[in-house]
């Protein structure tokens, strides 16, 4: 059964401007530990790929927070919600800390879809209950 749905669109140019002003502090505030490693790797190869990666992850966190109905309020913390990829490329959500405990206590599962183009990144998250 569907618990919640969230969607978001993010202007990649806005993320690039924040990175230009604040440097990596913004990425370090938003990305979880594994996401941060991927961000640095992609950005080192091609700046635009790193920025697009950050934008898709920022968008996914916004969508996830909407789908669970908490917004960005405790236990939802930026770094405790990571969107990673299976070896096949399929994205999935990994939770940490109090957010993971909150999510598990409600027996929820999440599905995420991401996409980006030159100027925009979008995400869509469906959270459902595992038990009827």
Automatic annotation (TrEMBL):
EC category: transferase
Cofactor: Mg(2+)
Keyword Metal-binding: yes
Residue stretches making up the 4'-phosphopantetheinyl transferase domain: 4-121
Any single GO BP term: fatty acid biosynthetic process
Gene Ontology molecular-function annotations: holo-[acyl-carrier-protein] synthase activity; magnesium ion binding
Binding site for Mg(2+): 8, 62
GO cellular component: cytoplasm
Catalytic activity: apo-[ACP] + CoA = holo-[ACP] + adenosine 3',5'-bisphosphate + H(+)
Domain of life where this protein originates: Bacteria
One Pfam family of this chain: ACPS
EC number: 2.7.8.7
Alphabetically ordered keywords of this record: Cytoplasm, Fatty acid biosynthesis, Fatty acid metabolism, Lipid biosynthesis, Lipid metabolism, Magnesium, Metal-binding, Transferase
Localization: Cytoplasm
Membership in a protein family: Belongs to the P-Pant transferase superfamily. AcpS family.
Record-linked NCBIfam families: acpS, pantethn_trn
Matching HAMAP family: AcpS
Role, per record: Transfers the 4'-phosphopantetheine moiety from coenzyme A to a Ser of acyl-carrier-protein.
Protein name: Holo-[acyl-carrier-protein] synthase
């Amino acid at each position: 059964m569907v618990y919640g749905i969230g969607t978001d669109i993010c202007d990649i140019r806005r993320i690039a401007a924040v990175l230009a002003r604040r440097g990596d502090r913004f990425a370090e505030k938003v990305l979880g530990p594994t996401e941060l490693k991927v961000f640095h790797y992609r950005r080192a190869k091609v700046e635009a790929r790193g920025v697009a990666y950050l934008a898709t992850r920022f968008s996914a966190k916004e969508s996830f927070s909407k789908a669970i109905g908490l917004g960005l309020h405790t236990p939802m913390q930026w770094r405790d919600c990571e969107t990673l990829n299976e070896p096949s490329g399929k994205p999935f959500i990994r939770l940490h800390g109090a957010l993971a405990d909150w999510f598990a206590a409600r027996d929820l599962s999440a599905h995420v879809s991401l996409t980006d183009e030159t100027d925009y990144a979008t995400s869509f998250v469906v959270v459902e209950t595992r038990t009827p």
